[in-house]
Amino acid sequence: MMKLRDTFAYMVSRWTDELVITSAGHSSGAWWELTQDRDRVFYLTASMSLSSMFASGIAFGHPDKRVWAFSGDGAFVMNPGMLFVERRMNLPNLTHFLVSNRCYGSTEEVDIPFTEHADYAALARAAGIERVYDFSDLDDFKARFDEAVLTPGHTFIVLNVEKAGKDVRTATMDGPEVKFRFGRHVEAVSGQKIFNVLP
Amino acid sequence: MSSARRDVSNRIADALAECGISLVASLPDDWVADLIKVVEADDRFTHVPVNREESAVGLCSGAFFSDSYAAAVMGASGMLTCVYAVTKINYTYEIPMFFLVSMRGAIGDTAKYQIANGIYFLDVLDTIDLPYRLIESRDQLGEIPRVHRHSRVYNRPTAVILSREVLQGEA
Q1: What is the DSSP letter of A69?
Q2: pLDDT tens string A93-103
Q3: Is A197 within the bounds of a domain?
């Protein structure tokens, strides 16, 4: 089992130009704690399972940008059907990281009662997703990072991590600030106009 | 399939294209099923059938961060399930999106299991301050671009609600 902070610290060290969408719970808090980034990250807190769909919309609109979507297993078990939609869209620039700590990270790490028999990677394969990885060892994750994360193709990656054991607070921004800072960054790197245009 | 129904579906698709919409997410209600078929076959759109209506909210909200426009097509029951996603994503972050929804449960709907929509659906939209236009004749389909445009002004979702008579090509 990996430590969340160590796993994310390694990912941050390999992070270049990917657009990052975090979910409720520890992915938002840990990414914020490590990066303090207010521009390249959309902190999608409290969406209850929609982070990968949100990221899919971004990836669809920016086929030349890589998008990393994080979800927790608390959100994932609410809506595993997202995998079927992801598979149908099959966006080669989308990587969905499922941070599996077997608890509801944003609610005092209360245990998720379904995880003992759950195999998220098997679920993804059953949904037809071809590039599926399941990491529990950080050295293994590091060794296969280029293959798993940097190779083009829609990818689903399970990161099995320990409970954080503490409250991990997310970015101190209100929703519109998250929207505008992230959106302005996307405008700058893509050349696409998002704001101040009307159909 | 009546030609009148198909004509309405085609006119709605033309209105969506006029809006610049290129991504359409849907989950079928039988009244919008023909529209979904038309969208699926139309090269002007990328059609994404979703597993549940909230996924359409996530997808269309993410698509906001590009220069393409998106729409979500569903029934009233489906949109009722989106209240959490709309209020948490679109209201918290002030992200526009556009819904096309069938007005199930209204007078003329013979499905008893849709009655709750007729009682509560529009009241729920009013309660969450989600602007909408109820379209009850094809002469009103020109409202679609205006309602879509308003979502961009309002920075939150708007909806076009389509009556059975319109979607069946009867009005």
Answers
A1: E
A2: 999 999 998 87
A3: no
